[in-house]
Give the backbone structure.
Amino acid sequence: MNISSKIILAILLLPYSLAFSQNSADTIFYGGPIVTVNAKNEEVEALAIKGGKIVSVGSKAAVTKEWQDSSTKIVNLQGKTLMPGLIDPHIHTILTAMSEYVWLDLSNFTTNYDTVETLSKKLKSHLKTLPKGQWLVGFGVDPSRTKPFMTELTADVLDKVSTEVPIFILNQSGHIAYVNHRAFQIAGVTDATANPPGGGIYQKNAQGKLTGILIEGPSYAAFLEKMPPPSDADVMKAVQKAAKMIASRGVTTTTEITVGAMMGVENEVKLLKAATATKDWPLRLRGYLYGPAVPKGFTAIKPNDGDDRLRFIGIKFVSDGSTQGLTAALNEAYAYPIGTKERGNLDYKDDDIFSLIKPFYDQGWQLSIHANGDRAIEQTLNNYAKLLAGNAKPESRRLRIEHFTINTPEQVKKAIKLGVVPGFTVGHVDYWGEAFHNHIVGPERASRIAPSASFKKEGARFTYHSDSPISPVGPLRYISEGVDRLWQKPPRKVLGPNERVTIDDAIRAVTINAAYQLMSDDKIGSLEIGKQADMVILDQNPRKSAPEKIASIKVRETWIDGKKQSW
């Protein structure tokens, strides 16, 4: 055959070759269980990807026959499990970066609890490394996990670490901070200083003297303004490290749940845009602007601005404090200390927070409100009901309540009726379960923490999250926690056995339900044709594992848009 004949033949065969290439997958996976998390919770033998999307799931024979050619990359799972990429729908990404890679990280999630002595030793050791003029800033002190129980750092305790260097330590909850007298001096806060608006409290003793304990974010502002900020390069490096840490736990999509809370909205939007644009950024990120930080008249970011990697979808407000910190707003008094009448505080009056959230709701933003205590949950549900009045499809707004910790059965029903999607910090039942049950709120209220089965029984969605850095990132651990509900402190017991769910239910809480909560279930959260190829490869199949073993399953790879991520 001469050259001209070959050219003519090639032209004649071109339509057939194009048709063949259109059914040529970029990558096909087989050789291990593929957990789809579709409506039937099916497992399949093979999955094909083309152009970053899933084009086929089913039997190995059918998928390879239709989609495999010589150019297709084959990934033999060799017995490992392929699942939808895991989703943590509530992470403070920037705060996680700062607490783990910039400040002194004092978080302790082991059963060897800290004491004032061990904490002071860590602070003194870190003090030696500080450059001149720097504050000693740390994160992760937790009185509910300190010996003796509820032992707090005070200004007097921190003065024994240093009277010259200002000290600022965030409680593990993020809702309380501890400072020494030098920090008070620099911040200009005295015994006569009034509490700041928005729920902040400079705690004072019976004699009216500052104790060194700060309650709620507004009380931190005077101190944060005086701290020398880390360099932009150091912050960027920390955020990138945090992203890779989060991805290494099997997460492909997460959030910055309070954009602007630390460095201002404009600065953090700029930071997140720059970070997610880097070549090796390994996550999808959904942003929620922190309502109190949004400047008046701010229009630079509108609902759903962004792309598939970084999209701004919501507004976040905080209505009360921390349950383990004894500041969440409860209907009935705490059980600790015995005989107390303290039941926490709402950060806003009902009408005040309604007037703040309504303009954002009207603009089309998804709303996310932190509400730990049942009094705060009730306030939030009542305000949501006012917003949704007349809306025939309230579920279309997917309004969020974060944590939903101390709740009532009536509030569960009301949330379901309003189409609210609650997100549970399911680590509450694990790391703090014993403290809640035996000390803080007592058995009855503690048993309803993270009421997963109650929502499942009514056919409603719920999600699990870490609230990192409040508890460690790890969706596989959340699955274990939702299924067995065992508290960590020996002797381990089940917290609220009636609220346990199946492994499949817990898996959905960190995949398709979380995607729904993030307005992204049409694109991610399950392995189905047409969805983006966001996946995780695990050493073992969690559906076939004992609940207590799921947390230790190793994450091998994460994929986004059909591309393996580096972390």
